[in-house]
Amino acid sequence: xxxxxxxxxxxLKLELFCRGMRIDPSxxxxxxxxxxxxxxxxxxxxxxxxxxxxxxxxxxxxxEAFATRSPFALAHRxxxxxxxxxxxxxxQVQIPAAPAFYSRTTSSGRVMSRVGVLQxxxxxxxxxxxxxxxxxxxxxxxxxxxxxxxLGAQEDQEKRxxxxxxxxxxxxxxxxxxxxxxxxxxxxxDTYLDELEPFVEAISRRTxxxxxxxxxxxxxxxxxxxxxxxxxxxxxxxxxxxxxxxFEKHCPGKAEKVGLDRYLEAIRYCxxxxxxxxxxxxxxxxxxxxxxxxxxxxxxxxxxxxxxVFRPLIGTDLxxxxxxxxxxxxxxxxxxxxxxxxxxxxxxIAPNVNVSIILKPEECRxxxxxxxxxxxxxxxxxxxxxxxxxxLAMRRARAAWYRRGHS
Length: 407
Ligand code: SF4
Hints:
- By secondary structure, this protein is α/β, with parallel strands linked by helices.
- It is 36% helix and 17% strand.
- It has two domains: 9-37 and 55-93, no CATH class; 100-383, Aldolase class I (TIM Barrel, Alpha-Beta Barrel).
- The strands form three sheets. It has a seven-stranded mixed sheet. It has a four-stranded mixed sheet with strand order 1-4-5-6, covered by helices on one side.
- Helix 6 (161-175) crosses helix 7 and helix 7 (192-207) crosses helix 14 (375-403).
- The structure holds iron/sulfur cluster.
């Protein structure tokens, strides 16, 4: 594996996730040049969006205390943005501009940046009320989660279906997005799919975009066949921690109301149904061996692990917890790629979906000595990506036809 950060952008992405970055005073135009920093998700997406060499979209922590002590700094030199370490240039980076649609309003008068947020090159929407774990007395939210701090402050809590459709269409027209990702928290009575389905149905029918859904696992697993029939391509289940004691400690609401086994059962059930099923975990809050065991189990089911690097967000219960060191996580991301390849899981099949808040499994080929030995797997994924591009074109044409008034 290439150890030089100047030649290994995935390793640099991991370093930035773990160490954050300072902003040099030379970046005085950054507010005008870049996207605003918007916190919208359960623990990530709080940083500055930039694109590393190799096209690796990265959301870099810049506000947290650990980031202010980082060896890395973003600087503006001779018209270029660069990442420096100890005054030495490590990489030239691109700063994606704030999208124009962020300041547009929907027909009901809502500002679009308060309806959905770009994370990398897809639109992330949290369309329903705040997670019930935040509302209990005492709070039982996940310790790393910032959802209860964000909603209402930067995003509108209850988003009408038309607002979401209009925002997705605006993002597609301006930036060619292909994918909308819906996320909810937990609601008593397991109503999260009931609340989400009108949004899913409308996005599928009126935009034709690919759709991902991330909710707690519904006890009635047949609901996932219904979601698939509505046009959902991907589902994601965040069980966060494989070690049961760590799961109960850091995710008390999930442990009490759902339980780890229901997450695992949903992953097992959904893997053969959807284009991609993800099991999402957090690295850095449990021993590396535990994270590796989770990767093994998820990939054994035919699902793809989403491995987030723990980020101690300001205002969360773990804001004073240190972020993980990058080097012990290298074997985690190496195994992530190897396990997906060994087990024939297609990676990177959704066209034009760049994710900034995690290391995508396909990006982890940078951690492997000879990734070319799985050329046949990567070739198969490229063929599947072409197939999804064709599907997307058909769905868009059908959606345009629908919007013209046919049903
Ligand atoms: S389930 Fe946990 S991570 Fe998800 S929104 Fe609720 S408190 Fe946050």
